[in-house]
Design goal:
- This protein has one domain: Alpha-D-Glucose-1,6-Bisphosphate, Chain A, domain 4, CATH 3.30.530.
- Helix content is about 30%, strand content about 40%.
- Strands 2-3-4-5-6-7-1-8 form an 8-stranded antiparallel beta sheet.
- β3 and β4 form a beta hairpin.
- The radius of gyration is 16 Å and the shape is globular.
- The termini are close together.
- This is Activator of Hsp90 ATPase homolog 1-like protein.
- Pfam families: Polyketide_cyc.
- InterPro entries: COQ10_START (IPR005031), START-like_dom_sf (IPR023393).
């Protein structure tokens, strides 16, 4: 299992707004080349999101199915990328003052990923998921700043990792 945490400098409703818009997944989900289709009732349980993932010409179509949806708190997805199997992706939003602590967990459910599960694979997934949370933090902070008319804070990037990938 891979677990990442990130403090995002936006309140949970604003972060949830990004998660609940399936058409925007390509903006922050690392490796997504294009969103192919989004169920109109995304992110309710059972809704599907189809995306094309890959690097360069090496692509495959992936389907994410919402398994659990608790608006502004928790979103759990089953990502299916055949022939590689499926993984559970759990995203939890924890209010942290005026900001949001996002906890993202990835765990293989079936397929070859369950046999390759361990340090090397989990490390690569943790790096990828860390990149995703960095993108999500930047988008959320930019939109929060635009929505309030404030100027971005100086210094480090918006949002910071609270711990190293585990």
């Amino acid at each position: 299992m891979s677990r990442n945490r990130r403090l995002i400098m936006s309140p949970p409703p604003e972060v949830w707004s990004l998660l609940s818009d399936g058409h925007r997944y390509g903006e922050w989900v690392t490796g997504t080349q294009r969103v192919l289709d989004t169920d109109p009732h995304w992110p309710r349980a059972g809704a599907r999101l189809r995306v094309r993932v890959g690097i360069g010409a090496l692509t495959l179509d992936d389907t994410c199915v919402v398994r659990i949806c608790e608006p502004e708190r928790r979103l759990e997805l089953e990502a299916r990328a055949e022939p590689f199997g499926a993984a559970r992706i759990a995203i939890e939003l924890i209010p942290w003052g005026e900001h949001t602590l996002v906890v993202l967990e990835w765990h293989p459910l079936r397929g070859p990923g369950t046999r390759m599960h361990g340090l090397p694979v989990d490390y690569v997934v943790a790096v990828r998921n860390g990149m995703m949370l960095t993108k999500l933090a930047r988008i959320a902070a930019r939109e929060h700043t635009c929505g309030t008319g404030r100027t971005p804070p100086e210094g480090p990037e918006p949002g910071r990792r609270l711990s190293a990938p585990s």
